[in-house]
Amino acid sequence: MPRSIVSDRDTRFLSYFWKTLWCKLGTKLLFSTTCHPQTDGQTEVVNRTLGTLLRAIISKNLKSWEECLPFVEFAYNRSVHSTTGFSPFEIVYGFNPLTPMDLLSLPMSERLNLNGKKKAEYVRTLHEKVRTNIEKKIQQYTRQANKGNKKVTFEPGDCVWMHLRK
Prior knowledge:
Strand content: under 5%
Strand order of the largest sheet: 1-2
Domain Integrase catalytic: 1-96
Oligomer: single chain
Number of strands: 2
Low-confidence stretches: none
Distance between the termini: 38 Å
Structural class: mainly alpha
InterPro entries: Integrase_cat-core (IPR001584), RNaseH-like_sf (IPR012337), RNaseH_sf (IPR036397)
Organism: Dorcoceras hygrometricum
GO molecular function, one term: nucleic acid binding
Mean pLDDT: 79
Protein name: Integrase catalytic domain-containing protein
């Protein structure tokens, strides 16, 4: 059971039934910020990717998607993402889980056990690398998005056009 679920404030998740269910299961329901398309965009990308992976695996047997979901989730969490340069699993736990294919060629010298201090230091440096990779990717996206935009500075008293949402 997940400890928390992030929702886009969909009314289906706001009903009394769901609130009671989450409470009984010990799951905390978190909401994304209103009018914050970045959060929805991230969710949409993950959902689209998982949907593509599921379609590739289940082929024409549409009723088997539920059985395949844990394997698709594992594959997604173990794959290296372009923004961070690491897999989600490695970011959270500090290592990628081994698969049976990994165990075939693993020499005994590679099967080492890091002590707690070394492991904590490794995870700390890993998170620093992830943060650096994300910042680089953000700068790359920003440069691409701002290509051709003019820098405009406003002074107090300048007339500007404003659009206010309801």
